Amino acid sequence: MRKSASAIAVHGILILYTALALFPILLVIMNSFKARKAIFGSPLALPTPTTFSLIGYDRVFGDSSIVSYYLNSITVTGGTIFFTLLFGAMAAWALTEYKFRWNTLLALFLAVGIMVPIRLGSVSIIQLIVELNLINTLTALILVYTAQNLPLSIFILSEFIAQIPKDLREAGRCDGLSEYSIFFYIVLPLIRPAMATVAVFTMIPVWNDLWFPLLLAPTGGKQTITLGIQQFLGQYITDWNAVLSALSTAIIPVLILYVIFSRQLIRGLTSGAVK
């Protein structure tokens, strides 16, 4: 009885937390299908035949630049995830498998990157991007986001790689496999849950970030969707129908990717990747 009561209490708390987390998202999506007066008159009410309106979506998809902003966000997020996983896994493999001088010191140096916000170096980052002639390019965003997410990815992937039996790696070497073959054909398939965990932790902050797109790619058609939505916000008049519609469509890719990686994410968290 005590176990069942505690289980009910835990599930009740989780359900309550889920409801609190999903409520703002549902509120945004729900109001995106309303007329402007209904948004302010009854924000918590469901759309009705009299209040239902698609004017916000018409304005969003009628603007050709919005589509390019979505593509920019997808490119930046996808590129960041790819390079973060690739370089993070390679660095984690090197730090875990090979013992060399300053190995521990290098690992501690990378761990500092988890604790120190990269935004503290915004001025130096802007100067470096300008010197490299990468201002107003998606490449600049991918490079900065990859550097931002590498420390955490190396930490998580190192924990997983350390759990791989050494006999598997030695067996590969005995069979004549190169170090690259061992890494790509033995190690990477075994750390897929950890890579899914890193992908989710990388994806959401990058997709939602407004700071670096505003600093590094604010013009020239290179804006991300988060920055592009700002065009509907005015000093005196704000097109709330368009804002809510754009936010609703911006949420969908994140939800789809989260659903795709959710099973691997849960496996990664429960396998001891984050301690």
In brief, what are we looking at here?
The chain is mainly alpha-helical and 275 residues long. Helices cover 75% and strands 0% of the residues.
Description:
The protein has 275 residues and is mainly α. It has one domain: MetI-like (MetI-like fold, Orthogonal Bundle). The chain is 75% helix and 0% strand. The protein has helices at 2-31, 36-41, 55-62, 64-97, 103-115, 122-131, 138-162, 166-174, 179-190, 192-208, 211-216, 225-228, 240-270.
List the defining traits of the structure above.
single chain, mainly alpha, 275 residues, MetI-like fold
What is the H/E order? HHHHHHHHHHHHH
Strand content: under 5%
Unreliable segments of 5+ consecutive residues: none
Helix residue percentage? over 70%
Question: Structural class, from helix and strand content?
Answer: mainly alpha
**Distance between the amino and carboxyl termini:** 31 Å
Indicate the CATH architecture. Orthogonal Bundle
Q: What is the CA-based Rg, rounded?
A: 23 Å
Report the total helices: 13
Give the class-level CATH name: Mainly Alpha
Which superfamily, in CATH terms, is the homologous superfamily? MetI-like
Number of E-state strands: 0
